[in-house]
Amino acid sequence: MSDSIAQAATAVNGSFSDRARTPRSGLTAATLALTRDLRLAFRKRGQLIQPLVFFAIVTTLFPLAISPELSRLRDVAPGVLWVAALLSSQLALEFLFRDDAQDGTLEQYALSGQSLSGLLFAKTSAHWLLTGLPLALMAPLAGLSLGVPVGAVPGIVASVAVGSVALSLIGSMGAALTLGVKRSGALLSLLTLPLAMPVLIFGARATELAIKGESYGAPLELLGAVAVLGITLAPLATAAAVRVNLE
Amino acid sequence: MAWTWFHRLGSPPYIYSLAGRLTPWFAWPAALLMVGGLYGGLILAPPDYQQGDGFRIIYVHAPTAWMSLMVYTTMAVSAAIGLIWRIKVSHAVAASCAPIGASFTLCALVTGSLWGAPMWGTYWEWDPRLTSELILLFLYLGYMGLRSAMEDVQRADRASAVLAIVGVVNVPIIHFSVTWWNSLHQAPSVMKFDRPNLPASMLMPLLMMLLGFTLFFVAILLVRLRGEVLSRERTASWIREALSPPMSDRSVSGKPISGVRP
Fold this sequence. Notes:
- The complex is a heterodimer.
- By secondary structure, chain A is an all-alpha fold.
- In chain A, 79% of the residues lie in helices and 0% in strands.
- In chain A, helix 2 crosses helix 8, helix 5 (70-91) packs antiparallel against helix 10 and helix 9 runs parallel beside helix 11 (217-246).
- By secondary structure, chain B is mainly alpha-helical.
- The A-B interface holds A 173, 177-178, 180-181, 184, 187, 190-191, 193-195, 197-198, 201-202, 205, 222, 226, 229, 233, 237, 240-241, 244-245, 247 and B 83, 135, 138-139, 141-142, 145-146, 149-150, 152, 155, 158-159, 162-163, 165-167, 169-170, 173-174, 176-178, 180-181, 184.
């Protein structure tokens, strides 16, 4: 296990290492950065499930606050699921880059000669795999407890999975911008939540249509468009913000 | 190429004195246009056939809403210039824009909701324009929050510039998504105010107010820019020369200036 982390480090720092005589391709470096992040995360399994537990607790609050009637809960289910997903994806953001900034990993990434935006995109993908994807798989369970019909499950999974890609990317920009700020939690939410509103609108709409049993293709495609735009542009902004905070 | 005039704009002492000299050239036309526009809009223009005198708030609402977007664009463009060419004065312009833009946005929201009270029967309607204006206010607050959270000025400049550019990419998406969201959830709003159909007696004051507010923004920006430059350059030696009164003035008024700390 530690072997592959060392391998990741040498691949990322290719130009400094004598093991990597031939320059590694950007894709290899990004893959190794991704596996490194996943490995590190799986060493702290307790922290992995925290966003999921938070998501479950937030969705439990709504029936308690509104009403236990399933017919009423079904109406508000898309909003509840999406607000809860949005808030849970915010949880781990503050620490997305913080540890790596403090121990110098980000500096090594920036100096490695590899594309910094590519490596940061790999880190963001790891964040999505660890929060977005589990949330997408868990959202139907929460939905069923809110009286959502079983037929809506594919729509909910698809919309949360695609939408959380955009949320992770928006969050990575906010996390990179607030790297130099102590106790950045509230500021981070202030920066990222307004940018995330289109995702919330399209995602909740797709979920709503799925619950009604109608075609949810159009909002899902718009959600996909936002995610693709995020994949194209967000890593560049994240890399620029990380460079600002490394200087 | 005679680019010296452009390069001189990047020099804090030059921009400080230039901004001071230019301010009245924007402030006075702005005052005249706004007084004229208010007179034309509030007194000369006929009442609207549907809304009566209620529509007259447009003479404040539309210009502030227009300015809220224009100031954001100005802020993002100057932040981008500062980020790309590393011009400190550009960052100072962006930093001075943010509070002005946030105030205009707040004014647009307040006047919009006051207008909504008699027209829609409620102070707040989740109208797409009001909602995207509210999100714009959050964007301004986020920008100012990020800037104030970072102690190092240059780092704050560059980080907030990245944020401003990200915001510019997002503003159209937010506006589009909010419009689309709203059109699905609620009937089109009762208030259809077709601008091109405005008679000249209503339109002229509106155009005067738009131009007046734009000049007003430039004047305020120049004043704030001077303050921003002063606080950024407070250790520089040219400040001492710029702020000390000329010798002739001192000998005439002989008494110490009150309110100025040594």
